C-alpha cells in the first residue's frame, strides 16, 4: 500500500506542477520563422517556399531538460494546424517530422507536399 500511495503522490505532484497533463503553450514567431514554446527554448523552424505556399519544416529542437514531455509533437501539431488553416502544404525536411511525427500521426500526411512538385521550389526567405 505504501508504494502505491507514493506513486499516486508523484502523479499528483506532476499534475500540480503541470508536467503530466497540461498542454504546453506554443506560439508562432513569424519573425524568426518558427513555432516555439512560450519560454522560447523548444521550437520547430521552417522556411517558406514556392511564393509562400509551401512550408518546409527544417529543424526541431527540444533541450535535454525538456526531453520526454512530448514538446516536439506539440510543435509539429502547431505547424501542421497553421499550414492547414492557411492552405499551405508541408515539406518534412526535419527527420523528426518525416520519420517520427508523420508515422505516429498519419492523418497529417494529407498536407505533405508532393515530391514531383518540389523539384522546382524556390525559397522566399
UniProtKB/TrEMBL annotation:
Superkingdom of the source species: Eukaryota
PROSITE patterns reported for this sequence: GNAT_YJDJ (PS51729)
Family matches, as Pfam families: Acetyltransf_CG
Domain N-acetyltransferase: 25-113
Name of the protein in its database record: (thale cress) hypothetical protein
Gene source species: Arabidopsis thaliana (Mouse-ear cress)
